[in-house]
Design goal:
heterodimer; A: mainly alpha; two-stranded antiparallel sheet; 3 helices; B: alpha+beta; about 60% helix; about 5% strand; globular
Amino acid sequence: MTVKASTVVRPRRSGGRMSSPAHRWIWRAVAVFVLVWMAAHFITLGALKWGPSVRHDATVLGQMIAVAAFPLLFLLAFGTRNPLRGGIIAGAVGVVALLAVLLHS
Amino acid sequence: MQDTLRTRMGWLHAWVGFAAGLLLFCVFTSGCLAVFDTELTRWLQPEAPPQTAAFSPRSLDHVLPAVHDLLAQGEKPFVTLPSARDPYLRLEHHDGHEFLTVPYNPQTGERLNVRATAGGTFFYDLHYTMRSGVYGETVVAFAGLALLLTIGSGIIIHLKGLVSDLMLLRPFAARLRAWLDVHVVAAVVFLPFILLMAYSGTFIRARTLFPPVSYLASLENAFRVSAPSAAHRPEKPAVPIPEAFPPLAPLVAEAERTIGAGQTGYILFQPQTILVSRTDSSGPLLTREHVDFSPVDGHVLRHVLLPGAITHTEQVLKGLHYARWTGVGMRWLYFLSGAMGAVMFASGSIIFLMKRRRQSGERIMFRIAEGLAIGSVVGLPMGALAFFWANRLLPISLPDRPLAEGHVFLAVWVLSVVSGMAWSLLGRPLQGWKIQLFCLGGLGFFLTPLDLATRPGVAFFHVPTVFAATDLVALFLAFVSFQMARRL
């Protein structure tokens, strides 16, 4: 696997110990998974409120969006260089989806 | 390892791909076979002659006593009308795993004396539940999400070389390079199909992953202690089954006036209703439009067709995934694409193990992973072939014969996993691969002689397409297995 020199990022030090990227990625993947899963769940729930009036159609629409959004959001959040930024993106989508569940009349 | 987008995606692709890939290999392989479920049922019931007389609607009434018996047992029987794929009238019901089917002569309505079998729908059930009910369904749906992630990360990794990799296959290059070429070619060429199947399959089972109820409410319901009810609610009286059903031919004719001539496919029987439903082969939209009749006097109760753009989108996704509307050519294309999907998972898993063998080959987890890979990649096809062997070799009079066929399949599969694990833990995984590949080759190679020896009334000059195609695919699998075992 070839990597351009300009894209090399120095590993961060935490408490004097250097952790391997793979270890950090595991925790990052877990955190992103939880956030994205909650966002997908709130999208499904919210579709019943903001979606079509027929319950079957609303459920189907919510699940269509959730299944498509899950991998896209996961890759987006996991792909950002800064883990915090990825978390903020996934978290923001989740919060918007939650607000749509709570606030939609 | 440096922290770049490509390395992050590579890590995600490798680990999520391997963790879900072995299961997805089984899902794609069984899906390939499920595309031909009707045809395989004909192979598995060789007593039924390959050609039969034309359909007469009057024959439907001869099935009614058996329908009545099944309803009395609490089943939901339905009759499948003859079609281009299957010339027989079939009475079917779901036994909790697969649709058990009894063929009838489409002209006289006489029951054909054939062996009881789990049939081709065995692979359909295996495809989406792994024969584990709703838990299996959830795991398979979860693997579908993992597949979407793996495809996405794979595209990001190979984005630059997506077109050039398309034409690059070096089977005689270094082993890792050759496997990588196989993986990339299988994945890139069939990417649209794999992506469509991953999305539509996950969406179809999305209710297990993303139910339209809050998880909190579900948890509360799970832990809520049911209060003792002071007044015992009387049980709902069972719906009586009518003594006699009305003649079915006028009902089918009436339904065809609404649905369209020649568009009826199924007749579902319930104690209160007879549903005459549109055939799945009528088009890519799996509408399941139906006209309902009273089981007492046969008058029309209602016509049900779900309208709306979202429902139509759902029906298209289901229609494209199930492929019941397609002709033979398109079904073979589905089979080929599904097989290439399975090749993609198998080669990906092998690459994952090859890359880590030098560094982690002595670790117990690595050996377990390799044992599981042997058990999945070779074990599942071996189990599937054992299912066909069991169908022909188990005594016809064996009670619960369909279940016994399933048990043979599972026994061979488990044996393969245990054996693969044992060879791997003993530090001789190549031996495990070789032995199992030779066993797989043997099972495939000798399926044709077994078919010829055990098929009643075998003749070379009638229309044995279903039998010939099944035997030839098994022969091809045997050839590939022998070749792989030889080159290992």
